[in-house]
Amino acid sequence: MGYDMYLVRTPPGEDAAYEAASRSFDAAVEHRDRLELPHGHPEHQAAQTEVTRAYDAMESARTTHFCLTTWAMGDCRTLMDHFGMLVAAQPPDRPLPRAHAITSGQALPAPAGDAAAVQAQQYRRALEARLSWAPPHPGGIAAHKLGGDEGWIVTPGEIHAALAAYGTSRTTNPALLSEVVADADWWPAWIDYLHHAAGHGGFRTYGPPVT
Prior knowledge:
The protein is an alpha+beta fold. The protein has two domains: 2-91 and 133-206, no CATH class; 92-132, no CATH class. The protein is built from seven helices and six strands; from the N terminus they run βααβαβαββαααβ. The strands form two sheets. It has a four-stranded antiparallel sheet with strand order 2-1-6-5. α1 (14-35) runs antiparallel to α2 (42-61) and α5 (156-172) crosses α7.
């Protein structure tokens, strides 16, 4: 179990590119398996090389998703806090279905024409506003948004502030940054993902439930 991050807006054309890359990967696997040759056979090895290439191409086509193990996310939060990229912020209280004149069951997506559909939509908009809430001038990413399974939305403003803080911190202690990259090989990719997400509406975070 770990943490999964998803861009709020998928880059144009990415879904089609990923589907095409997936088909190429499936075809490469099918070709390799159809050979029915020993793993050490040169022709099988060449086919496996093509499978690996197709898999890498498929993975690189999907830029929407980024994942970290639970352990890595703990390290990530520690590092981001050290670099001044996180801030403490108190989100609004979670909206209650009864405040919108609906039950918990009616808060789920409703069929067209359902009498509670309008109120349910209002409730979901209120919930979305809470998940994406950030101070007017954020100083970084709200720390609570990198925990739990609610689907918190990290906004572009928060990301830009976090990256600005990181840009200042990394120049004052380059030795520490070298140690970070050596110990956490996912860190450069995480920073790249933050830059990417800032241009696509931010990202949602889903992790283990808070107990």
